[in-house]
Amino acid sequence: ITVVLLWRSHEEVTTSDETERDDWVAVRLGRDQKEYVDHRGVHVVVGHYMGEANNLQNPPNLTEELLNSNMFDPRPNQGKDGQPVVIPSHELLKMQQLFHINRFNLMASDRIPLNRSLPDVRKKRCQSKSVNLTGLPAATVIIVFHNEAWSTLLRTVHSVVNRSPRSLLQEVLLVDDASTRAFLKEPLDQHVAMLPVPTRVLRTHERVGLVRARLLGAREARGQILTFLDAHCECTVGWLESLISRVAEDRTRVVCPVIDIINDDSFAYVRSFELHWGAFNWELHFRWYTLGGGEIKRRKQDITEPFRTPAMAGGLFAMDKDYFFEIGAYDEQMEIWGGENLELSFRVWQCGGSVEIAPCSHVGHLFRKSSPYTFPGGVGEVLYSNLARVALVWMDDWKEFYFKFNPAAARLRDRQSVRSRLELRERLQCKSFEWYLDNVWPQHFMPKDDRFFGKIRSRESGRCLQKPVGKGSINQPVGSATVVTCTAEPNLLQMFVMSPSGVIMTDESVCLDAPERDDSARQPKVRIMACSGTGRQKWSYSEQTFALRHASSGLCLSTGPDEALILQACSGHIGQQWQLESVPWK
Ligand code: LR7
Ligand code: MN
User: Fold this and answer.
1) Which of 97, 124, 204, 442 would suit a FRET pair with 70, their CA atoms being 20 to 30 Å apart?
2) CA 397, 402, 405 angle in degrees (round to 5)?
3) Whose CA is closest to atom 29 on ligand 1?
4) Confidence band (pLDDT; 50, 70, 90) for 519?
5) Are residues 181 and 260 both part of a single domain?
6) Which residues line ligand 1 (CB under 6 A)?
7) Which value, in Å, is the radius of gyration of the alpha carbons in the chain?
8) What is the whole-number distance in angstroms between the Cα of residue 48 and the centre of ligand 2?
9) Same-domain pairing of 323 and 347
10) Cβ contacts of residue 419 below 8 Å, gap of 6+?
């Protein structure tokens, strides 16, 4: 039996040493929500799945006056210790309207003091392991923002000031990326002038996007360590020393904290698991995945040890300032938002550095479901141009794979001039993308030459195997594999990779999965589940009989009723015959 535990956003779970286990299987790891099945088959969800304030019936009228007014109105106990804010029912309508300004519950945020307390969410072993601060270099904390709310921006700054060892904090640099809100001008300058740590506000002359805003901050920084944060974060105790000590040991390390969740509705601080690392999907979107095998083993020895990650989320990390510039800073031609996180991750790994997550450093980030600000030039143009640049510079042959399945980026490909970035790659003598896949992310699901890539077609109906559509939901955490009409145009949902070891996987690290044994009464359902590396996800294919045989049960993949797939004793009948149709992409 599978017990599904649902938490409303106001009753979220905080995990502790005792409940977080390495044998949990990730079912789905969204940006702001993580779902696991634990060792007893109990389904655990961390994060939220529904913002109540977000369900607005009538679109609000966001007047200039409203946008320019600072409604910060702190109440001493609201949000204390990371608890959710409670808004009385007579204010709910107003709350819903204010939600649209920043795409988070502004009224809730504005009621929490700038110095709110947060629990020490670190593992006990992190708490007892003290970092020796003597001789450690100090950091410049750089926070770029565009039209951020007063309360979230300053709570970020105050949490840095309050919870960083003074000797490690050289200064805070705020970079205002051409915000238009009045309260982010003189009032902000005046507020930061009173802080006990040198804090300055730099301003861009026009909207330059987060990459060039961060570059402005980096060039002005006086600290030896650059530490970047988004403008809506809250740091917890111990966050900075755990990052800086790693960089001090090896200047080519880029170190990220564990990113906890600040709920966009209640502003509750929700501790996240440390069981995942960052990578990307076939659309080059950042995703969390279950930690790779080697890192899990290393973690079992010492859960306080930082672990390597194929990619960073982008906003929260520390690195040596000189190394930052030596290795090419950022691609200045990246606009507004997106792509720079993968660009930096690929570059650091391929050019001799490393990216890691320090489990003893926890920082909360406010996750939103949509972006509140404008994308001059259009969201698609901006994002896909940035991603096209990543592919063109760093991915070698795999850029063709990306462009084939992402026509929106392919259209912008020829407009990019990437010569100076390719020269950088040449000058630094960086390794290939293949090296990155083999060494940094061996668990990847990219179509390397040693594996089948294409469609899996039923010889009975001519239909194709398809991954469940959509991001899934709480009610359908794992999807059933289906057999549907094959599409002619490139369709990522119908593309599968079969590795030499017999794992049939597809985008986002999900694998064709079936129960170990024949559960005689029913025909075992074939599903698409998070890849786990276990025997229940191994298959073998016979080019003679066209059978796909499930390794641990010895049964064969068969078409079932409707669009379903089942396992049956192998008989060789037409419903058990599959054509593996390669789709070329190079
Ligand atoms: O034009 C802009 N100018 C800016 O100064 C656009 C944005 N910004 C600022 C913005 O105010 C914010 O402080 O840049 C920062 C990041 O923008 P967000 O908060 O809208 O980004 P995000 O949190 O949705 O996105 C993640 O991916 C981005 C890709 O470009 C950046 O790398 C973000 O820093 C990154 N955030 C994180 O890594 C936090 C954890 C997310 C996860 C998983
Ligand atoms: Mn952010």
Assistant:
1) 204
2) 130
3) 338
4) low
5) yes
6) 31, 144-146, 148, 177, 207, 209-210, 213, 230-231, 259, 313-316, 336-338, 340-341, 365, 371, 373
7) 25
8) 16
9) yes
10) none
C-alpha–C-alpha distance, residues 347 and 343, integer Å = 6
Q: Examine the pLDDT at 159 and tell me if it is beyond 60.
A: yes
Whole-angstrom distance between the N-terminal and C-terminal Cα of the chain?
Answer: 46
**What's the predicted TM-score (pTM) here?**
0.92
Residue nearest to atom 34 of ligand 1 (CA): 315
Token pair in block for residue 399: 């850029």
Ligand 1: which atom is nearest the Cα of residue 341?
32
Phi, psi of 30 (to 5 degrees): -85, 180
Residue written as tokens 């001789």? 135
DSSP structure string for 237-250 = TTHHHHHHHHHHH-
Same-domain pairing of 198 and 222 = yes
Residues 542, 421 share a domain: no
Residue 456: CB atoms within 10 A of its CB come to: 26
Tell whether 306 and 434 lie within a shared domain: no
Residues 404, 514, single domain; the answer is no
Report if residue 248 sits inside a domain.
yes
Cα–Cα distance, 162 to 379 (Å, whole number): 36
Q: Is the pLDDT of residue 362 over 60?
A: yes
Structure tokens at 572: 């060789």
Domain count, the chain: 3
Residue 117 and residue 80 in contact, taking contact as beta carbons nearer than 8 Å: yes
Report if residue 78 sits inside a domain.
no
Q: Name the DSSP letter for residue 4.
A: B
Cα–Cα distance for residue pair 365/269, rounded to 1 Å: 9
**Ligand 1 atom closest to Cα of residue 207:** 1
- Could you tell me the residue range of the domain that residue 491 belongs to? 452-582
Does some domain include residue 416? yes
As given in the structure block, the two tokens for residue 61 are: 């009228």
Q: What is the CATH number of the domain that holds 544?
A: 2.80.10.50
Residue 343: predicted pLDDT: 98
State in Å: Cα 277 to ligand 1 middle: 18
Burial classification of residue 16, based on how many CB atoms lie within 10 Å of its CB (0-12 exposed, 13-18 middle, 19 or more buried): exposed
Residue 6 token pair: 């649902």
CA angle, residues 385, 388, 392, in degrees to nearest 5: 140
What's 298's DSSP letter?
H
**What are 11-44's pLDDT values in tens digits?**
334 444 434 555 556 666 665 566 666 555 555 6
pLDDT tier at 472 (50, 70, 90 boundaries)? Answer: very low
Average pLDDT, the chain: 89
Residues 176-223: tens digit of each pLDDT: 999 999 999 999 999 999 999 999 999 999 999 999 999 999 999 999
pLDDT single digits (tens) 42-92: 556 665 444 444 545 555 678 999 999 999 999 999 999 999 999 998 898
Please report where in the chains the tokens 């009621």 appear, as a residue: 111
Do 291 and 145 share a structural domain? yes
